[in-house]
Amino acid sequence: MAKKTIADVDVQGKAVLMRCDFNVPLDDNLVITDDRRITEALPSIESVLKRGGRVILMSHLGRPEGVDPAADAKYSLKPVAARLKELLGVPVHFASDTVGADAEAKVKALKNNEVLLLENVRFNKGEKKGESSYVNILATFGDIYCNDAFGTCHRSEGSMVGVPNAMGNKPKVCGFLVEKEIKFLSDAISNPARPFVAIVGGKKVDDKINVIKNLLSICDTVLIGGAMAFAFSKAQGGQIGKSYLPNPPEASLALAKELLTIGGEKLQLPVDTHCGDAFKGDCNKMIAKAGQIPENFEGFDIGPETQQKYAEIVKAAKTIVWNGPMGVFEMPPFDAGTRAVAEAIVASDATSIIGGGDSASAIQQFGLADQVTHVSTGGGASLEMLEGKKFAAVELLDEK
């Protein structure tokens, strides 16, 4: 897929309306604790500024239920504006609304080589439904539309689809982050160097059934970890003790049986489990063979034998996609399985793509993020791309 990027359009003296994903974590004092989603957007913003354009930024932050930023300050993008000002070193203005009087006045006053960040688009009820009264006003703010919000590319909300459609024949391009994400998550898996290994973890097999199905059709091996492994174990008649199983379990067990039939030898399951008798790091622990977990114990991580088995498969791979941790990586010692997989990925000479969400958090926690090929900024979007889905927000962008 070859879409025009922000580098392909003339921005001199023009306003670029850019959708970014500034959905960053904030602590109780409204201080940004991880600004990666902001720094990832800088190349696209700076490309416009360096060429004499001006940038109007849109983003969401969390899921505010109300429409009053003052009453719901934890969802305001004001801290993001302050961080952007520090990083860019140019005037960064902040509008207290999205399509109201303050936004309209600041759009008109914005000068070339300056930036304006609009307040959280989800404070406006028109965003979710893509209401014409809302998207039509936003569409007047820019001469060029740029989508650099990969984390929400799988959504069809107002700022993602409604606004660019309302901009008619004005240029619609992707930013460098979206270009990079699509290159790795789409292009790399469409023609991978082999062996191609996928590692899929997390809690529910229900959430990743279509991802696993698609990966089984294109990968050489799919490794399963995390709590979803217990559905497979139970489906095979194993004992899983107090380990997680969705309630009611029937649908998950049926899905697991279906995947076992489809996957055959491609689908690799844990052979042992690191268990505890309580959800805390200092609980009583044991290593149990897969399907042999005592009834008063719960599986929290893949065991050492599985770690070694998976590491050997991963180290021999030429392309790796990883989505979902192997266990409770936030709580030592049950981080060992996820850490072993992360270290094996780094030790390989494969093209390695970390599919956002908890996998991205884990590899950053382990200090290994700069040693893999690509860490996605979008958990849900990367999952849907691995399913093989197309995104309306990307499809509508101009072709090269």
Uncertain spans:
none
Number of strands: 17
Fraction of residues in β-strands: 15-25%
What share of the residues lie within helices? 25-40%
Give the topology:
Layout: E1 15-20, H1 36-39, H2 42-50, E2 54-58, H3 78-88, E3 92-94, H4 101-109, E4 115-117, H5 125-129, H6 132-139, E5 144-148, H7 158-166, E6 172-174, H8 176-190, E7 196-200, H9 205-218, E8 221-224, H10 229-235, E9 239-240, H11 250-263, E10 267-268, E11 272-276, E12 285-289, E13 292-293, E14 298-302, H12 304-315, E15 319-323, H13 336-347, E16 351-354, H14 357-365, E17 374-375, H15 379-386, H16 392-395
Parallel strand pairs: 1-2, 1-5, 2-4, 3-4, 5-6, 7-8, 7-15, 8-10, 9-13, 15-16, 16-17
Antiparallel strand pairs: 11-12, 11-14
Helix pairs in contact: 6-7, 9-11, 10-11, 12-13
